[in-house]
Amino acid sequence: MNFKTRLVLLTGCWFLLSIVVIGSLFNYQQTYVEQRTQQNLHRELAAHMRDDSPLMEGSNYNPKALKSIFHTLMLLGPDFEIYFLDNDGNIKSHAAPEGKVISQQVNLAPIRAFLAGKPFPILGDDPRNASGQKVFSVAPITQGNATLGYLYVVIGSEQRALAAKFSDIDSILHSPVAWVSSAALVLVLGFSLTVYILTKTTLLSPIRQVAQDLKTQAENGYRLKPEAMLNVAELKPIAKQMYLMARTISQQFLQLQQQEQKRHELLVQLSHDLKTPLASVLGYLETWQIQATQPDPLINTAQRNALKLSELLSQQIDIARQQSVLTEPKFEALKLGHILQDVIDTMQPVASKKQVELALNIPKHDAVFGDRQLLQRLFTNLFDNAIRHAPSASTVQLTINPEPIGLGISLQNDIDPHAPHGAMGLGTKIIQSILMLHQSQLNTKQDNRHFEQSFSLPLPT
């Protein structure tokens, strides 16, 4: 995922989680406050009921008094449930219908905490729900200094819970939690959208503009644009460094063009100065050989070296005739197999004359990123060098191996100890210059009988 997608997802998920946590805390706090308020309001309820009429006759409870309390309960409404407990927490009497009471005993620990004045809310057992607890009011029933039992009043009866259950949908729709959650969701989405727009405006779009400017400059020989400097505070240092880099590259291009022009003029002048006297020397040597009655090895050696010098001079003239050898390359996605096939077709007559086999090992995926003419010149020089130094009836093997960041290329050939030497190495220099433009370099391995040249070419982007 790109940066903007990660930003939106992270912001959205983070704030949705925040809504859940805040909503849960809000609901918990609301329940806590409601329970504490109810318990505080009804703190003395059980004591008032106990004091209205005596609940005990001797060591047993008074049925008339309990009946009066249960009548009072009906007048108060269905929000309270009253239980008469003995000293061990066992339920002795209650106002619930038959079968409604599930538990026959109430834990006395919350009751003791209530009577000891511990902070509210204190939750006690709900006899109608074995796993539930509710707030309550309790009053001890004493005789002398002895506690005979407790009047235990559960606040928030089963009927109230049922009524609340049936109105859950309506209560959810109109509850503060729902409104707060909805408002928080809208704010979260608005905040996420605002952050995305801000990030896109201040970071993503300027970065895309810098990348586009660099691409345009690269396509136009790194000629600088006046608007290369951005007015974005966060990206201004990066844009400044890129501007300086592009300016340096542009200056280097101008220097290279000047050097190329001087080199061209020098080669033209040098070739013109050498061509005429060299042709005269070759003419005299040929005339000597024609007129001589016997072959002279010294004359033959001189003629052979003069011919080699003439060949090198022709190469220099060909280079001098070109306005630029390696400038203004046009990089694009290319099929390397097509380029190699054109080179093989060109070099096949020279290889056949020397009985050298040209073998290729090209994978199915052979796409590279480079300049077609430069790559053709690169492989032509490589094969020409390999054929020239290979012995007769041998094989020149080119192997291509896919690599994570490009195609690894290896050219191997055997070495003929009698192969001609003494070249100026222009072909190797050109190969190294072409590979430098393709972000690669030439690696050479050589022993007495074997020669290998390897390099890599980048994949299309």
Uncertain segments are 161-169
Q: Biggest sheet, in brief?
A: 5 strands, antiparallel
Structural class: alpha+beta
Strand content: 15-25%
| Radius of gyration, taken over Cα atoms and rounded to an integer in Å | 49 Å
Mean pLDDT: 77
How far apart are the termini? 18 Å
Number of separate helices:
12
The helix fraction, in percent, is: 55-70%
Give the SSE order as H and E letters.
HHEEHEEHEEEHHHHHEHEEHEEHEE
From the spread of the alpha carbons, the general shape counts as rod-shaped
Number of strands: 14
Task: Considering the chains and any ligands shown, give keywords for the structure.
single chain; 461 residues; alpha+beta; five-stranded antiparallel β-sheet; five-stranded mixed β-sheet; 12 helices; 14 strands
Sum this structure up briefly:
This protein is of the alpha+beta class. The chain is built from twelve helices and 14 strands.
